[in-house]
Design a protein that fits this description.
With 137 residues, this protein is an alpha+beta fold. The protein is built from three helices and five strands; from the N terminus they run E-E-H-E-E-H-E-H.
Length: 137
């Protein structure tokens, strides 16, 4: 047995699932075996009815958190998957080993119009636009 570090897993999530992306099939099998040993829920991931053999779905919420923390305790590290937009890279995954520090919230962004205010600025043929300092509501 070697003391090689465990592979980095890429993390992505949606309201219905949390996916851990392994770099290869052996790593995916190893992740699933570790989850089985720890008694954690997981299932094979699918997209458009196609199996994703490198991706393990660990559910959502506390179930996903416990599975990820268990893998972190074993030495796995994590990084955001490229499919996750920067604005969605927050929450408990930030605490997993390897994850970059969370970005501070943007405070100086221009105010956005409410749907009603956008309607006042636009017509059916004109796309909605942001409010400007000159706009009064």
């Amino acid at each position: 047995m070697t003391d090689e570090p465990l592979p980095q897993l890429l993390f992505s999530s949606s309201p219905r699932s949390t996916w851990l992306w392994a770099p290869d099939l052996d790593a995916a099998r190893q992740v699933r075996a570790h989850l089985d040993t720890g008694g954690h829920f997981w299932r094979s991931a699918e997209r458009a009815r196609q199996k994703l053999p490198l991706v393990t779905d660990v559910e959502i919420g506390v179930t996903a958190l416990e599975a990820c923390l268990s893998l972190a305790d074993l030495g796995y590290t994590f990084a955001w998957h490229n499919d996750v937009p920067g604005i969605d890279r927050n929450g408990w995954p930030d605490t997993l080993p390897g994850m970059p520090a969370p970005r501070p919230p943007i405070r100086d962004s221009p105010a956005r119009c409410t749907r009603r205010q956008l309607h006042a600025h636009s017509s059916v043929a004109t796309p909605a636009r942001r409010c400007s300092a000159a706009d009064t509501h």
